[in-house]
């Protein structure tokens, strides 16, 4: 098994290489780049999506109730005399 000092040394060396390479710039710029890309996609948060889902569910329930009321009104004989 490898000694933990060897693993730590390898890890430090790799971190040093990354810090000196273009990868360091990519890492610094990655978050703003992703935020910009997601902003262009016009995404919504999960919370906003859940709220809209609940609004849609309530609207569907109201529509169903109105359709039932309309069907009941249409099926009753009209007293037009």
Topology, please?
Blueprint: H1 4-20, H2 22-40, H3 46-75
Structure description:
The chain has 81 residues and is mainly alpha-helical. It has 2 domains: 1-43, no CATH class; 44-81. The chain contains 3 helices and no strands. The protein has helices at residues 4-20, 22-40, 46-75. The longest helix is centred in the C-terminal third of the chain and has 30 residues, at 46-75.
The gist of it:
The chain has 81 residues and is an all-alpha fold. The chain is built from 3 helices and no strands.
H and E string: HHH
Main sheet properties? none
Distance between the termini: 99 Å
Question: Which word captures the global form?
Answer: rod-shaped
- Whole-number mean pLDDT: 82
**Number of separate helices:** 3
Q: What is the CA-based Rg, rounded?
A: 31 Å
Number of strands: 0
Strand content: under 5%
Segments where pLDDT lies below 50 for 5+ residues? none
Structural class: mainly alpha
Fraction of residues in H or I helices: over 70%
Number of domains: 2
């Amino acid at each position: 098994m490898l000694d933990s000092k060897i693993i730590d040394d390898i890890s430090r060396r790799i971190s040093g290489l990354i810090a000196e390479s273009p990868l360091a710039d990519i890492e610094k710029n990655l978050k703003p780049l992703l935020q910009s890309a997601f902003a262009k996609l016009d995404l919504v948060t999960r919370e906003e999506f859940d709220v809209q889902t609940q609004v849609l569910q309530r609207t569907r329930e109201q529509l169903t109730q109105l359709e039932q009321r309309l069907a009941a009104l249409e099926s009753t004989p009209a007293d037009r005399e």
